[in-house]
Amino acid sequence: MLSMIRWSQERDHGKEDSMNRRYSAREVAHHIVDLCARESEPVSNLQLQKILYFVQQQYARETGGLLFDDSFEAWQYGPVQPGVYREYASLGGAKIRKVYGGSALASDATASCVVDSVTRRWRSQNPWRLVDATHVKGSPWDRTYRGGLGNHHVIDNAYFLDNAAV
Fold first, then answer.
1. Three-class SS of residue 92?
2. Which of 24, 28, 38, 45 is the most exposed place for a label (fewest CB within 10 A)?
3. Which residues form the Antitoxin SocA-like Panacea domain (predicted)?
4. Beta bridge partners of 118
């Protein structure tokens, strides 16, 4: 009986850890790119940036926390995570066809579910539709960009948590 209780506590502790684990934006981006390539619907860097932003928003709504701590910047065409942007910048507007073959999110059902759901919802959208969707009044991007005054300024991650209730 004691071993069963210990096993249950360890199992529940593992769940708690995965729910509280934060990933890097790069790990989440690799998961998105891999999913899209494996399902024969690759995305461009522009699409990836917007999907990554929507993932962070949705994860905050569903869990009250952030999926990753890396910040976005408010650029003219919407939010950009600079490290992820640079990783794929050499591709220009071409589709990212890389398959990573494994994901840091694989053992985290909550994170995987949110990321996969958001990715599948948005990946087939025209990139400019995604840009428009990030420019919603009151969004974290809008609150930072402020009509261009905040161009390339860091979007405060607290804005995602503020918008979680929206």
1. coil
2. 38
3. 48-141
4. none
Q: Is residue 69 part of a domain?
A: yes
Look at residue 75 and tell me if it is in a domain. Answer: yes
Residues spanned by the domain of 42: 23-165
Rounded Cα distance between 45 and 144, Å, is 21
Tokens for 33, please give them. Answer: 């790119």
pLDDT digits (tens, 9 = 90+) for 57-83: 999 999 999 999 999 999 999 999 999
- DSSP E strands: which ranges in 15-124? 43-44, 72-75, 78-80, 95-96
DSSP state of 39: T
> Which pLDDT score is estimated for 101?
85
Place of tokens 């990946």: 123
Q: What are phi and psi of 97, to 5 degrees?
A: -110, 15
